[in-house]
Write a structure and sequence with these properties.
Blueprint: H1 2-18, H2 23-26, E1 34-38, E2 41-45, E3 50-53, E4 57-60, E5 74-78, E6 81-85, E7 90-93, E8 97-100
Antiparallel strand pairs: 1-2, 3-4, 5-6, 7-8
The structure holds calcium ion.
Signal peptide: 1-16
Keywords: Disulfide bond, EGF-like domain, Glycoprotein, Repeat, Signal
Protein name: HMCN1 protein
Length: 101
């Protein structure tokens, strides 16, 4: 009984694999950034610094909205990234911390 079940599942999987359409390579995916093909379907991916909005579009992540982007002083959100900046009289040390003179 169990063996028959496994055989059926395997058969279905092989069938699904052989009939799968790779939407990504056909350019019918409509993804704004990246595309990952899956058996029987696909999903869209976004580059670093972006997140999916809906199923196909990518929007910038506002890193500053979460914990000030880990910046010690100011955080400036940019498209696809963000920058830390310091108060007057301080200089950026590394990418997030500020040191005085
Ligand atoms: Ca950003």
């Amino acid at each position: 009984m169990r063996a028959a079940m496994v055989m059926w599942m395997t058969l279905l999987l092989v069938l699904a694999l052989s009939t799968d359409i790779n939407e990504c390579s056909r350019n019918t995916d409509g993804c704004q950034h990246g595309c990952e093909n899956t058996v029987g379907s696909y999903y869209c991916t976004c580059r670093d610094g972006y997140q999916l909005s809906g199923s196909k579009n990518c929007i910038d992540i506002n890193e500053c909205a979460s914990n000030n982007g880990d910046c010690e002083h100011h955080c400036e959100n940019t498209d696809g990234s963000y920058n830390c900046t310091c108060l007057d009289g301080y200089q950026l040390s590394g990418s997030k911390n500020c040191t005085g003179e």
